[in-house]
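note to self — DONT lose this again. spent like an hour looking for the file last time. sequence + predicted structure for the chain T wanted, 293 res
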Amino acid sequence: MEFVQLRHFVALAETLHFGRCAQQLGIAQPHLSRSIANLETELDVRLFDRTSRRVELTSAGKAFRTEAFEILHGHQRAINAARTAHMTARETLRIGFVSAATFHILPETIRQMRAAMEVHIELQELTTNEQVEFLLDGKIDLGLGHPPIAMADRITAEVLRPDGYEVLFYSDHPMAGRKAVSFDDIAGEEFVLFPESQGPVLYNKFRELCRGAGKEMKVSHVATRMQTIHSLVSAGLGIAFAPTHARRFRLEGTVRVPLEPYPEILRVDLAAFRDRVNRKHSLKLFMEIARLL
């Protein structure tokens, strides 16, 4: 028995007409008749009652139809499952990220993804602006960074986690022992910040807050990595701003102090940026997991 015979049988069982069935299958009617006759010979039962006016299923044909449907559907499900597994196993998900994403969302999402499917992950630390450029050039599939960004038509942004900053002091700084500090308190301090080109919008927010407190912003050093910023602060080279969700990252010689009242313009969200035309299964799964964290 061959699958083609089962397909011929199921098609005839639905149409109950040799001529129409053969036309639907795109084969000659005599070929269909021989296929059904060979199947009946192999099974040693008559599946159809044939007269000059009509074709009807026998009781054996009705019983065989139920099982034939299951066999054909199971065959197709097996094909679909194999094709899906083959496609997803070949996928590579390319992710650009800022350091803030590494403290929870990125590693936890990847861990859960790898438990759910076979996927090759490529990671690249990029500024938010670089992520947008790489998305437009097709160099990455997903960006994890800080809005706002200059949005392109194809790029969508979805906030995964709202966040803010705490002030990072070196341990013997005069304000390191306080329960909280205001921006007015720290506006005259020397800051250790990221390069302005890495996040010009946020950079300007710090500058505006300093001017609002009657001071000009002073930057002693710049660094692109949060770990480097912590190290420079611990050396007493200035104070900095550390994301609140990265509290688990501690460096000896530094102290975190909350900002109170908290400036609304310093709200910093972690968002996912992606090209809306990207249909990768791994990208869809990443977003489904990340939304629940």
